[in-house]
Amino acid sequence: MEPLGIYSEDIRINMYDIDAAGNPRISRLTERLLLCASTHMELLDWEWSRLAKELGVCVVLADSRVRLTGDIKLGDRLKITTWTIGKLYPMMTRGFAITGCEGKVVFESVMRSVLMDIESRSLANPSNYNLTAADQNFEAPAISLLATRPAPIRKVDTEGRTPDFCREHTVNYGDLDYNGHMNTAKYAECIENLFGAGSLFANPLTGLDVRYEKEIPPDSPLTTVGFYDAERGATDIAGTSGGAARFYATAYRK
Predict the structure, then answer these.
(1) Dihedral of the CA atoms 23, 240, 216, 175 (nearest 10)?
(2) Which residues of 176-195 are buried (b: 16+ CB within 10 A; e: fewer)?
(3) I want to staple 250 with a disulfide (CB 3.0 to 4.6 A). Which of 9, 107, 155, 209 is the partner?
(4) pLDDT truncated to tens, each residue of the chain (254 aa)?
(5) 192 and 70, same structural domain?
(6) What is the total count of domains within the chain?
(7) Are 26 and 121 within one domain?
(8) Residue 155 maps to a domain
């Protein structure tokens, strides 16, 4: 029996996980990770509905990094493993690995989140709600995102620059999560849409770093712009709404 700090479940890659060119969709795989984390949190007594209804708090992502590290194809049977990392407050860290039948990691992620008071929208300390960290005494999968200490996800300076990519979007009902703002997986979907279908069919996303600055409420107009950096082979992205920065990201493509 696995310790409570780590949790695994089997998945099968279906038609919603793959695009028309046969490439895995980063947004859909991100959603798969979040669903796995949700199940793990229930086992830790951190169930979303309990946090919101009984304690008046919710878990909000501060930043996330995902990387495609192997081949993922329609029909593949894979395993998602997620685990908690280190301290609980103020930043809670969680690792993810999707592995194939031989145990090779084909997709990985590290996500950091905070506990937020729903009414005041301010940081909350889990110890004040009798929410404790899980046992850390286990062997987690080895993933490259944890092998080194990555540089912080930086803000993107858009002043006076002409973007290589630009897209307008209105945050609607289908984008929202139970917190009432745009769901994490929808940020990845928004970034995918920034490039367009034909561009992604030819050069699919292989990684995505997202820094969440400010919540995006329903019916908000969202402008997403991207600036390609040839030296780094990456696209720096900024999302703004109502004159305020909502997120920054870096997208990596084949």
Answers:
(1) -30
(2) beeeebbbbbbbbbbbbebb
(3) 209
(4) 567 899 999 999 999 999 999 999 999 999 999 999 999 999 999 998 899 999 999 999 999 999 999 999 999 999 999 999 988 888 999 999 999 988 999 999 999 999 999 999 899 999 899 887 788 889 999 999 999 888 889 999 999 999 999 999 999 999 998 778 888 889 999 999 999 999 999 999 999 999 999 988 899 999 999 999 999 999 999 999 999 999 999 999 99
(5) no
(6) 2
(7) yes
(8) no
Q: With a threshold of 0.85, does the pTM exceed it?
A: yes
Q: Does the residue 67 lie in any domain?
A: yes
Instruction: Give the pLDDT confidence of 43-60 residue by residue, as tens digits.
Output: 999 998 899 999 999 999
- From the number of C-beta atoms within 10 Å of its C-beta (0-12, 13-18, 19+), residue 244 rates as exposed
Residue 214 sits in a domain whose CATH number is 3.10.129.10
Q: What is the CA radius of gyration of the chain?
A: 18
Distance CA 83, CA 33 (A): 11
Q: Which residues neighbour 135 within 8 Å (Cβ) at sequence distance 6 or greater?
A: 3, 4, 5
Tokens of 122: 């301010």
Whether 35 and 132 map to the same domain: the answer is yes
Amino acid residing at 30: T
